[in-house]
Amino acid sequence: MSLLSKTSVFVLSLSLVLSGSPVSASGVLVALTPGTGNAGSNATVLSWLPTGIYPTGTVLQVDISPAVSSVDVLTGSTTNIGNNGWAVWSTTSTGNLILTVVTSTNSSAASSSLYIPFTIDATAQNYSFSILTASTTSSTVPVDFGASLFYANGGNLVTVTAAVPATLSFAIRTDADDANTNLCSLGTLGVAATSTCAYRLRVGTNAAGGFSTTILANHDFANASYATMTNVGDNGVANAGSEGYGISVFTSASTGGRNAVTSAYDQPITEASVVGFDFSVDPTPVPTSTAVLMQSFPRSFRLNSSPSLTTTSRVVHFANIDSATPAGFYSQVVTYIVTATF
Predict the structure, then answer these.
(1) CB-count burial class (<10 Å; 0-12, 13-18, 19+) for 21
(2) 145 and 58, same structural domain?
(3) pLDDT value of position 1
(4) Is residue 161 part of a domain?
(5) 148-151, long-range: CB < 8 A, 24+ apart
(6) Are residues 186 and 319 in the same domain?
(7) Are residues 23 and 4 in the same domain?
(8) Which residues of the chain register pLDDT less than 70?
(9) pTM of the prediction?
(10) Residues 100 and 90: beta-carbon distance below 8 Å
């Protein structure tokens, strides 16, 4: 027996988006359009529903936390606050903007908005924009306030990661799958009956690309003086009294393979179809010159923890002799190599 494995590690990357709903206070809803941005110049509209007319002299204060890299407005310039309302900037900074309404014609209509172009840092973080209005001309004009978040460079994302180690297991088991073995004894051969011995191949892997199994013997079935027993031909027959040796039955595992649709492990292993080596339920020679693909499965394969006759593959060897078969102790070493594709 020998074992060949290829290993790799998979990393699962999951993203969790935290939905930041604008904060409402006293009927005032502050919102940002767009709600996200990347490092560089970002133009956004800060909008809200005013609770009344903003007469001339109303002060509107915008606070940004943390401070942005820069705010691309000029002190003293005028800006449209929506519905023909105009205001003039009196103070600008990267964390605080103050403007005063200079004309407020029809500014009590459905909404008001501020167009604010600004630049943010390259780091991932969330910016809070809050609006606070105050009137110095009338005590009956409500004070509007509220806040909204601006998600910058993935500042609202959580990346969850985990590593799943690559696994590959292989064992040659008894016919009952109740113990490991490396012996298949055909016993004492006679011309009157066919002799057989059986064992099971137990393969398990979480490789997404599945696995393949090859078979190769060190030489023909022979005795110490290298008297070689006749190899059965592919799709041949195993007749008592007629010398021949090979694999009489190969039965692939009928379950344990991952279902591509349902993800259940209910799929059978696929038997390889190789010219000259059909390992189905008829006699097949054991290859001795080149390793031959015996079975494969294209997805992960899970074994039962307890002995199982469905998640293991069964191999049955046979031998027949005739009256002229040379006496001696015949043997052969068969090597299986299992390769997973991660």
Answers:
(1) exposed
(2) yes
(3) 37
(4) no
(5) 148/20, 148/22, 148/23, 148/30, 148/31, 148/32, 148/35, 148/46, 149/20, 149/22, 149/32, 149/35, 150/32, 150/35, 150/36, 150/37, 150/44, 150/120, 150/126, 151/20, 151/35, 151/36, 151/37, 151/126
(6) yes
(7) no
(8) 1-27, 74-76, 82-84, 104-111, 136-142
(9) 0.68
(10) yes
List the beta bridge partners of residue 117.
43
Nearest to 25 by CA among 137, 134, 132: 132
Give dist(CA 173, CA 72) in Å, integer: 75
Q: Give the CA diameter of the chain.
A: 123
Residue 297 has, within 13 A of its CA and on its CB side, a CA count of: 29
Full domain range(s) for residue 139: 19-155
Q: What is the pLDDT of residue 272?
A: 80
Rounded to an integer, what distance in angstroms lies between the CA atom of residue 143 and that of residue 234? 93
Q: Over the range 260-292, which residues count as b (16 or more CB within 10 Å of their CB) and which as e?
A: eeeeebebebebbeeeebbbeebbbbbbeeeeb
pLDDT number for residue 186: 98
Tally the residues of the chain.
342
Residues 194 and 131 in one domain: no
* Residue 109 placed within a domain: yes
Q: What is the CATH number of the domain that holds 73?
A: 2.60.40.680
Residue with tokens 């309302």: 85
Instruction: Among 155, 176, 193, identify where a domain stops.
Output: 155
Q: Does 144 lie in the same domain as 182? A: no
**Contact between residue 186 and residue 196 where contact means Cβ atoms under 8 Å apart:** yes
pLDDT of residue 43: 87
CA 13 to chain centre: 8
